[in-house]
Amino acid sequence: MADSNHPDAQTQDSEEHKKSFKRSWKSSGPVAKLTVVFAGIAAMSTTIYAIFAGGQLLVMRGQLDEMSVARRPWVGLYGELQMTRPPNFRVQEPIEWPAEFAKAHPDIANAKPLIYMEVYASWAMQNFGASPARRVNHTLLAYGSQDANKPPAEVVDMPCKVGNQMNNDPAVGAPVMFPGNMVPIPETNAITTLPDKGILGLWLVGCITYEDTSGTIHHTKILWASDLSNAPKRELALENPPIWWTPFTKFRLVESDVDQ
Fold first, then answer.
1. What CA–CA distance (Å, rounded) separates 123 from 144?
2. Whether residues 169 and 228 fall in one domain
3. 10-residue block means of pLDDT along the chain (260 residues)?
4. Bridge pairing between strands 75-92 and 114-127
5. 3 state SS of 237
6. Which residues are CB-contacts of 253 (< 8 A; sequence separation ≥ 6)?
7. In this structure, is residue 2 part of a structural domain?
8. Which domain, by its residues, includes 161?
């Protein structure tokens, strides 16, 4: 008996199947043959339609995304930020801890005084989009720098994190900005601690946080830098301890980044 797993046996079986299929096709009537042909055409048409429908679905999704972007609110900076008064410098002396606590925690007890710089500025925001912006809030932070480098990423991201917390806090008001609305912010203050050697310039890091009508949260990150182009030489801001700074009277816009 021939081994059915042998290559020659498998080849013979394949040839027999082909001959059997040919005999069946020749002996079949016209109706059966047409049924087979139409079944093949239907299968091919179904495959082509599935490919076409999938492509159409992707196009429709892209169009819906574009429509959603076109109809959403876009709240951003309106005009320029203006300093409303000169910065304020102040010193917070360390706490005088009890002797027993000071002995156990010398790092805390021997802390240096904290030097604060507070700036005051006015600015405005506007909804440039086509639908209302809900739960609009804004945050402005200051960052003193001894060089011209931008603030670290964690500093740039901090105002938006604060904005998210405000957005999720039911105790915070929920102002609405309709399309075209402009909201002036007469004066807002930002405080930063200064290093011992003082600062070269100051960065203002802002974020506008708001929701669209579907409840999706959006952000507009804004970064300003103190304009030192016509600033005079460095001078003492405080004498005890001695803190130096480069006087400036205005800020310049560096970035304004709106998320999608």
1. 20
2. yes
3. 53 59 60 56 60 54 52 94 93 78 72 85 96 94 82 92 89 87 92 79 93 94 91 83 86 88
4. antiparallel
5. strand
6. 77, 80, 81, 222, 223, 224
7. no
8. 73-258
